[in-house]
Design a protein that fits this description.
There is one protein chain. Among the domains are: 53-155 and 304-342, Endonuclease - Pi-scei, Chain A, domain 1; 166-297, Endonuclease I-creI (Roll); 453-584, Aldolase class I (TIM Barrel). It contains 17 helices and 27 strands. The strands form 7 sheets. Strands 3-4-22-23-24-25-26-27 form an 8-stranded mixed sheet, covered by helices on one side. Strands 8, 9, 10, 13 and 18 form a 5-stranded antiparallel sheet that branches. The longest helix has 17 residues, at 563-579. Keywords: Iron, Iron-sulfur, Metal-binding.
């Protein structure tokens, strides 16, 4: 890295200027996109689009809870380990730094169903020491790496923390108050006082329901543990003197598959003790599943973790680059989804810049200041076959930073001088500066241009894409491109179910696009890859909580919307596109596939776009 720069015209944004060794990137075979090479002069994006961001893997915090890696910040207290080899104990440590980078991604799947996405360089602790996600037994890539059957050391699979439902609150209050009093612990008492107003003057919550659901049972486990539980020397126990309370506690443990022993104290009757079995992994699962309020009772300091092992089922290359996260800690490691993972060595060698894909993705921008020169040298190689190069496939080449660094004119010139076809996807109005250049080079090489514009509602646009040009500004950019004699496609993506997919919203958008002179429209509904899914879900829960159940149903089977929705959207979109002359009756076979491009009659064809450019 050459230097880091902050400029007053970019409030809150830091530019990290780096010298790249290569900027011409080969697209993995089988990716399905209509181009083979990409150039991305920037990493990170000051557009701050909500659905551009990658989420995180759960990390074990020092209070025993879990938090997504993308949400960590320097100063946070988490758990690391101390010890040698696989014989380790949990110790509190501090996050010293937090970052992200775009790297080829791999999915690591374990025998218990746990799945985590990591770079090939990342290392996990195994029964035989640290091993990378990928590697080879021979040649330059030789290094210890994970294979099927490798045993990973950790604390066991994390359980999802309970939803803060009315049932959970009733169960917590019953577990704590049924015996007639508050816990002496301030954290538990504060939680109970917070929950009580939900029930008004009623005290019905102290009664155990005839058939309690899992929400109620999670709350009951937490409330009774806060009142009468303990966790010392690796033993989690609850002791109580009411038989029905103990029986209800055991029934909840049974429902969640816990093993335990129940003993009666013969000296101090009636008094029963229930002790959890299964070791650290089950104790961890109890804390995550029930979420007790009292911090010191759930402290894991000094917990021995070497005995808990899970096996690698598979390591799969995803075939794409994703923003991948890492942190620096005081111990040099941390617990990611129950596995001991090492700080990434690449930070120290500066092979990538250390930024997270949450706020840092918006405010910490990597600038490959030598990208035009490196690209020109790569294009001069005899082996270069002048294949189509796409720009805008990971981050926007015409984000606001381009106004400062002016890398794109030299990149466009280098491609054109070498006879290389090029295309650009952007939502940045800085592109207007280079329209004369694009018009000039288009006489010598094919030069495609596409603008991303998904909606006209400026209020929704500001909430979804803070930092991007307004819909009005992008429509004006389309108009300027057409005035310069350039064909200009529009990528209407992502279309958001129940927010921007109505016939009225799409009809109004297509009308404005036709008025601006767009030559082609491609419609893509929202898809949510792992990580982006969680990030968008938090935005949706904050901005439109009423839509959360509908989205949960739509995306219940994965990242893509079900075929039934896509067909309904296609049926809606087809006639609207024809109404505005973005197609003809001959296109009827395509309108059922919303991701298929629809050509405006009589204009030049351009390569189709993939939504991976936005997500």
């Amino acid at each position: 890295m050459r230097r880091s720069v902050r400029a007053p015209e970019f409030d809150g944004v830091t530019f990290h200027e780096v010298h790249a060794k290569s900027v011409l990137n080969k697209v993995p075979d089988g990716s399905g996109v209509p181009f083979g090479w990409t150039v991305n002069p920037y990493g990170g994006c000051s557009h701050a689009c909500t659905y551009c961001l990658e989420g995180g893997t759960p990390v074990l915090m020092a209070d025993g809870r879990a938090k997504p890696l993308a949400e960590l910040a320097p100063g946070d207290e988490i758990y690391g380990t101390r010890g040698r080899g696989a014989g380790r104990r949990l110790v509190p440590t501090t996050v010293l730094a937090h970052w992200s980078t775009l790297k080829p991604a791999y999915r690591l799947t374990l025998d218990d169903g746990t799945s985590i996405v990591a770079s090939g360089d990342h290392r996990f602790l195994t029964g035989r020491g640290w091993k990378h996600v990928t590697g080879s037994r021979f040649g330059a890539a030789q290094r210890p790496h994970l294979v099927g059957g490798t045993e990973l050391v950790g604390v066991g699979k994390f359980a999802r923390t309970p939803d803060d439902t009315l049932g959970y609150r009733a169960g917590f209050l019953c577990g704590m108050l049924r015996s007639g009093g508050f816990s002496a612990e301030q954290a538990a008492a504060d939680r109970a006082l917070k929950y009580l107003p939900d029930f008004g003057a009623s005290v019905g919550f102290v009664q155990v329901p005839p058939s309690p659901d899992s929400h109620w049972q999670r709350g009951f486990l937490a409330g009774l543990f806060d009142l009468a539980g303990s966790y010392r020397h690796g033993a989690l126990r609850v002791t109580h003197d009411e038989q029905d309370i103990v029986s209800t506690f055991c029934a909840a443990l049974d429902n969640f598959g816990f093993r335990y022993v129940k003993t009666e104290n013969v000296k101090f009757r009636p008094l029963w003790t229930v002790q959890l079995l299964g070791g650290p992994s089950e104790e961890m699962r109890f804390f995550h599943l029930a979420d007790p309020a009292v911090g010191w009772k759930r402290s894991l300091d000094g917990l021995a973790i070497g005995r808990t092992r899970r096996k690698v089922a598979s390591v799969e290359a995803l075939g794409i680059e994703l923003p991948l996260f890492d942190i620096t800690t005081g111990t040099g490691d941390f617990i990611a989804d129950g596995m001991v993972t090492h700080n990434c060595f690449a930070r120290n060698t500066h092979t990538y810049l250390d930024l997270d894909s949450g706020r840092d993705f918006d405010t910490q921008v990597i600038v490959k200041v030598n990208a035009p020169e490196v690209l020109a040298a790569q294009l001069r190689r005899p082996s270069w076959s002048r294949e189509h190069v796409a720009m805008g496939t990971n981050t926007d080449p015409y984000q606001r930073a381009e106004g400062r660094y002016r890398l794109m004119p030299r990149i466009i010139a280098a491609l054109a001088d070498s006879g290389t076809p090029l295309s650009i996807l952007t939502k940045g109005t800085v592109l207007a500066r280079d329209l004369p250049l694009l018009e000039s080079v288009s006489k010598d090489v094919p030069a495609g241009l596409a603008i991303s514009l998904a909606l006209l509602d400026e209020g929704l646009q500001r909430r979804l894409e803070p930092g991007t040009p307004s819909p009005k500004a992008r429509l004006e950019l389309i108009r300027k491109a057409r005035d310069a004699g350039l064909p200009c496609s529009v990528l209407v993506a992502p279309v958001l179910p129940y927010l921007t997919d109505s016939a009225e919203a799409l009809d109004a958008l297509f009308a404005r696009l036709a008025e601006a002179g767009a030559t082609r429209v491609t419609v893509l509904p929202l898809h949510l890859r792992p990580g982006a899914r969680e990030w968008f879900a938090r935005w949706l829960g904050r901005e439109h909580p009423e839509l959360v159940p509908k989205y949960r149903e739509l995306y219940s089977r994965g990242a893509y919307l079900p075929k039934s929705y896509r067909e309904r959207l296609g049926t809606r979109v087809g006639p609207l596109l024809r109404r505005h002359d973005f197609g003809s009756r001959a296109d009827d076979g395509e309108r059922m596939q919303v991701t298929m491009p629809v050509q405006r009659a009589g204009e030049v064809d351009l390569p189709a776009a993939e939504q991976l450019k936005l997500l």
